[in-house]
Amino acid sequence: MTVENRDVPQPVTVLGLGEMGAAVAGVFLASGHPTTVWNRTPEKAEALVAGGALRAATVRDAVTAGEVVFVSVKSAAAASRLLEEAGGALAGRTVVNLTDCTSGEAKETGRLAAESGADYLHGQIMTIAPALGAPESVVFFGGAESVYDRHRPLLDLLGGKGALVAADPGAPVLYGMAVHGTMWGILNGFLHAAALLKDEGIELKRFLDHAGPSLTALTSFLPSIADEVDRSQYAAQYGALRHHLPSIDDLLRESRARNVADHLPAHTLFLVTQAIADGHADDNYSRMIDYFAER
């Protein structure tokens, strides 16, 4: 069921009306797309129905009503069950799975969609529900370029910074995890630092007034680190691992002296010490990729 270059807005279906699914349906309704919704708990559709959405009684009815079927549920297992319920009704349609999952689960859901005759894209939304559809909102997509291009006007409604990152439907999941992993690393590192400062009675605002430029500079190093990792070249002109070691040890001892949790600096010290023992004392910090990649 492929319709290109038509003036009539594509009818869409949204399966799952949690916080994000309801926001997805709201974006399409606001853009004038006929929107059919379904949720295990029918009451969750009431606000959308009041806004013009059509509520389907069954998954198959919902799928039949839309050319593009968006799935936003709590787990990969739940998404798979919905596709199994839809069965042959998916034939000729496109499934866009927005469910959080692992990369392997995204691929498996894509396989189930293909078995039912549907095209498949996986989308990883990188914003909170209220910001969905904003010009700066990011959505990573994975799947066939032809499928993405066919539905690009519809997909762009979800975020102005949407992009197809790979033909592999698991890739956007890894993109999302990479962003979140970096985020949690930064947040945990900052809050550990905040605990030390608070113990001394130093206001964080005052700290940021003085240290802001240094913290901002940290993210500017990411492109060079990425280049070193991609090329597997870790030689350092300055800032070698052996020069990190004393500072890490100081941070660990300071944390312990102030009864601040030492898990982060202790693990960092363990990894860096191991890398130095393995003969990498003069390498850049990017060498540590080898120790995170170890199994």
From TrEMBL:
Residue stretches making up the NADPH-dependent reductive aminase-like C-terminal domain: 168-292
Span of domain 6-phosphogluconate dehydrogenase NADP-binding: 12-160
Swiss-Prot/TrEMBL keywords: Oxidoreductase
Segments passing through the bilayer: none
SUPFAM superfamilies per UniProt: NAD(P)-binding Rossmann-fold domains
Similarity comment: Belongs to the HIBADH-related family.
The protein, known as: NAD(P)-binding domain-containing protein
Species for this entry: Actinocorallia aurantiaca
